[in-house]
Amino acid sequence: MSRNIHNTRATDRADVQQRDVAFARSAPAWGRWVSWIVALILASNFLWLVATNPNFEWKVVLQWFTEESVLKGLEITLGLTVVSMILGTGLGLLLAVWRLSENRLLSGIASLYIWFFRGTPLLVQLIFWYNLSTLFPTLSLTLPWTSLTWASWNTNDLITPLTAAIAGLALNEAAYMAEIIRAGLLSVDSGQVETTQAFGMSRSRALRRIIIPQAMRAIIPPSGNQLISMIKATSLVSVIAMGDLLYSVQAIYNRTFEIIPMLMVAVIWYLLITSILNVGQSAIERYYARGTRRTVEAATSRASMPLSGARLLQKEDL
């Protein structure tokens, strides 16, 4: 009799263990392992073909990779990116606030600006700024509808390849950043805005202290994408004789006719820069997601407590 009771309890314990999620085991993921193996084989085969292909001329790539003119072009590319991104983000923030304003004049100006600069190609804008002197030989500060002039400048002296590149990149970037920032501001709960108004905070202070810090979690990912796009968009300034990375590489292969290896020099530098930016973007995203991550972890722990208690009760009953 006791042996039958013992066997019955053992059977019940085995049934409970099968029903308890604490003893659950996932099925072997054979398909995942096979896909990884196939992907690694294909990737290694591709890398081997590229590395052993003599047409890439890797010795030439290594020879010119750290050449002085290439590094100077890289410096100009990074400088254009930083300056244009800062100016574009600042102007984009202003346009986003105007777009959300109840003032129809400001909202209309912001909408018109975004419509125009997003609707025309960046290359056309760069060429336009570079050839601005054909439309306006001089730029003057005058009293409207009079000949009274306070100051006047020669357009060719003001619009150099550098200023044309910065103006084209920054003004174009501002249109995209305005929409990104506007979406981030709209992602903040409207109750937060009502609370700042109830405390008598001004709109500018509420934006700085309450709304923008919360909106950063939604702003950072697309802003990182825009920064990476800006790095690549600087290659367009080569058409206005701006000595960026691509222009420096082109100047070399126009002399040596080593087109493919010199283009590989530019490609590798662009990949290195964007890889570093991806790491920085991930770190910033983790920083602004701290509060959300803690909330999710707390909710998960609270949700798992009843399940743990149920497992303990089942074990005690046995």
Descriptive notes:
The protein is mainly alpha-helical and 318 residues long. It has one domain: MetI-like (MetI-like fold), CATH 1.10.3720.10. 77% of the residues lie in helices and 3% in strands. A hairpin with a 6-residue loop joins strand 1 (138-142) and strand 2 (149-154). Helix 5 packs across helix 8, helix 6 (122-130) packs across helix 8 (161-186) and helix 9 (190-198) runs antiparallel to helix 10. The longest helix is centred in the N-terminal third of the chain and has 33 residues, at 68-100. The protein is flat and about 70 Å long. The two termini are 19 Å apart.
Overall residue-averaged pLDDT value: 82
CATH-level-2 architecture: Orthogonal Bundle
The CATH class assignment is Mainly Alpha
Low-confidence stretches: 307-318
Q: Strands of the biggest beta sheet: in what spatial order?
A: 1-2
Tertiary shape: flat
Helix coverage percent: over 70%
Strand residues, percent: under 5%
Fourth CATH level, the homologous superfamily:
MetI-like
Structural class: mainly alpha
Strand segment tally: 2
**End-to-end separation:** 19 Å
| Number of helical elements | 13
Radius of gyration: 30 Å
> What name is given to the CATH topology?
MetI-like fold
- How many domains make up the coordinates? 1
What are the main properties of this structure?
single chain; mainly alpha; MetI-like fold; two-stranded antiparallel ribbon; flat
Topology (SSEs and partners):
Blueprint: H1 2-19, H2 30-52, H3 58-64, H4 68-100, H5 104-119, H6 122-130, E1 138-142, E2 149-154, H7 155-158, H8 161-186, H9 190-198, H10 203-233, H11 245-256, H12 259-288, H13 290-317
Antiparallel strand pairs: 1-2
